[in-house]
Amino acid sequence: MITFEHFKIGATDSFGDYLITEEEIIEFATKYDPQPFHTDPEFAKRTFHGQLIASGWMTCSVMMRMLCDNLMTNSSSIGSPGVEKLCWIRPVYVNDRLSVSVTALDVRLSKSKPGVGIVNYKVDVLNQKDELVMTLTSTGMFLTLEAVKQQTANA
User: CATH number for the domain including 9?
Assistant: First the structure.
């Protein structure tokens, strides 16, 4: 299990290889972001991008899935107070393959919650050309190894 102690300032975890399909772009956008350049390939051909593009919110969702699959679900994460900054840098197209890079910017123990560490981190989402498509900075809260041991002993 990944605990607070795993995170070191400047350390980076990279993972993922998520293929973006036309079907998934349209399905997501139809449900959550029904702008025609996300839902209608023919309409999208006549737009600035010249083709269907994924919703930025889909890119966020894919990023979160990769983050969970490769980091969060095997960690002592107890949540996040929020995202400080989110930027969509370039569009995500059909057949793009996305990967994620997470870099710890700051790590510290909570002053008010014993056994909890605070990690400020930057997440970069890259396409198959290693081009940045999205970036965000956020804060995560993780139990320390000692807190996990105490929880396990009390269970």
Answer: 3.10.129.10
